[in-house]
Amino acid sequence: MATHPSAGPRLQPWEQDRLVLKTIRALDETFESPYRHRLVFPLGTNIPPEEREALGAILRSLKETGIPDTVAYVTEEELTRAQRDLEDIGYDPDTMMMAMSAPPSPIEYCHFDCR
Q1: Which of 33, 85, 98, 115 is most deeply buried (CB count within 10 A of its CB)?
Q2: pLDDT < 70: residue spans in the chain
Q3: What's the whole-model pTM score?
Q4: Are 17 and 44 in contact (CB under 8 A)?
Q5: How far apart, in whole angstroms, are the C-alpha atoms of residue 33 and residue 40?
Q6: Which distant-in-sequence residues (6+ apart) come within 8 Å of 54 by Cβ?
Q7: What is the helix, strand, coil percentage profile of the chain, to 5?
């Protein structure tokens, strides 16, 4: 998602949701999970009616053996298989390749001590 040229704060929340669902649908075309699980993605209340229907159609079209949730891990091979579908929704192939070849980010966490 971070490599999509329109992702970020300039999108309305429902537009960000649309990008997430279109990305999941693009990955869903080639991704095959060994588990059956329907993606749960509650739609916000501030979505224009015609967009709400379109987003609902995307959700209904997703496979039970496709991307299981919005934080699913996919491999480089799975991304490569979906590259054409991702390009169709605006992802730049060179930017995706740069992101895949970048060194991994360190894990960040916070430790809370509650009494």
Answers
A1: 85
A2: 107-115
A3: 0.84
A4: yes
A5: 16
A6: 18
A7: 45, 0, 55
